[in-house]
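User: Show me sequence and structure for the first protein, then do the same for the second.

Assistant: Starting with the first protein.
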Amino acid sequence: MAYASKSGRARTDPSNPRAFGVCMRCGLWWNRHRIADQYDWRGTSLANLYVLVCPPCMDRPQPQLKAIVLPADPVPVYRALVEPFFDDEV
């Protein structure tokens, strides 16, 4: 009869005990220090999604969700004058 560990991917060390945690995507148990928060783009900055995931389930932030930052308009010409086309035709 085979033995399946109920602690998943978590490692138990009696001399250095660490907490267990569950990945919110795959449901496997990992050591809590290996589970991290998932971040994604929200506007111009990265935002925490409050999803704890294991290293294989960790996604890179999608650059498609990043806001497009347009450059500022150019400085207008001070006292711009209109070309006198009517005077040129007479």
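Switching to the second protein now.
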Amino acid sequence: MVESNFERVRTMLLRTGEPDRVPLGDISVHPMLKAGVLGRPVKTPEDEVAFWTTAGFDFIPLEQGLQLTDVIKRQSMHEVEAHYAADTDETQVRSWAVEGKGLITTRADFEAFRWPDPDALDYSGFERISRLLPPKVKIVAALGKVFTCVSWLMGLEGLSFALADDPDLVAALFERVGRFQHRVTENLLRFDAVGAIWHADDIAFKTQLLVSPQVLRTHVFPWYTEMNRLAHAKDRLVVYHSDGDLQEVVEDIIGCGFDGLNPIEPPAMDITVVKRQYGKRISIIGNIDLGYTLTRGTPEEVRAEVRQRIRDLAPGGGYAVSSSNSVPEYVPLANFNAMREATFEYGRYPITV
């Protein structure tokens, strides 16, 4: 069993040299795969800690923010039942965002909208997990979603039209969402057990950004700059996650003060090029292909891809292995295990594979 130790993640993210081994970097694993690794359903905080440490991770991820409130999860989403999972013929239910018009399309909608209170969110999970952590393990708090929450509240189509038709409404909504997540950041940083904040906020698809870089520079990145400043002032680390082609804004992401970038999705970005161009200024996490290798490939193909990434990216530090998005239910358990086990086998420093 691999001993969990957040210091190897810290060393990786700060690029202060080579830790003892390459860390695992996923923060989202479907409960079906968690149960497969642990041998029982993951139902309690104790089960969560047991899964992540048994699986060889150095942290326990835990999410909070506007994206978990009813105004997002219940009112801005719709559920679709289908067969998603790889290892069962049963169906599962997934939530999908509304793409057309959302809850807020006019100034009147915005004025009438009932915003939750960030201080009234349930932070008890952080308290419980803090008490259960092994001595060398930290929490990675998942937040982000500044752009995402706005696009969910307006609908991506609604946001796109509003950027041209009512930019003042767009600015007001970004300000309100950003201020909410900023306050959540302040609350999360009060927990000593939080070692890093992971800002997941998808702003691109495989060929380009969802909106112009200027929209992000005006309405999104300033919030991350400020939230990262708060985190760094308390000696916490920060990671940015977005799928897709980020090439136009990688410099902006680095400028926000992020310590790590995830997941460098193939084929949108070439991770070896990203590491060569930016690896001295930001750590790189991810790239094990969810489009084919993890989902439709064999365990042997997964092992080969992990080995190649470690060979190309891990020397000198600044790299962690993860999927190119997350580990959903349509990843076979055998492939998830192959990714973990290959990381343990090939990722011990000095890299010799």
